[in-house]
Amino acid sequence: MFINNLTVAKGAIVLSLSSNREEEEEIKKVLIEKGYKCAVTELGGKSSEFNEKIVSAVVGAALNNNVIEKNSTSMHALLHATIEAVKSLSLTLPLDVSLMMKIAVVADNTWIAVSMFGKSALHPLTNHERLGFGIMHL
């Protein structure tokens, strides 16, 4: 099964797609066995609030779970991967959409990847799924 062939990029995407804590823990176990470091967090709110909170949420999750060290090189890579993931969510819409995202960060000694998966809506009846992804060299 593909879960045994996870790269940093695939690991972040699959981890963000996990539907519950049990799946999340199962995927994290495989990633850790492969020598990857990983973290998961969730963030929701209007897109304007999301953009204000995303950096602290991702940095906090990565630091608290020892995915990165607190230095300029690691922080720079994490922030660029995060920006790339946010941009691919298409949050430059002129409207303030509601978002609920599961965010996964996976790294090895060379790469760090950020994946965001969840729902967005302009109205409660218009929910649809979105995926954002970014990767950066450490």
Automatic annotation (TrEMBL):
InterPro entries: Regulatory_HutP, Regulatory_HutP_sf. Gene3D superfamilies: Hut operon regulatory protein HutP (3.40.1510.10). Pfam families: HutP (PF09021). GO terms for molecular function: RNA binding. The keyword Transcription regulation applies. Keywords: Activator, RNA-binding, Transcription, Transcription regulation. The keyword Flavoprotein does not apply. Antiterminator that binds to cis-acting regulatory sequences on the mRNA in the presence of histidine, thereby suppressing transcription termination and activating the hut operon for histidine utilization. Homohexamer. Belongs to the HutP family. This is Hut operon positive regulatory protein.
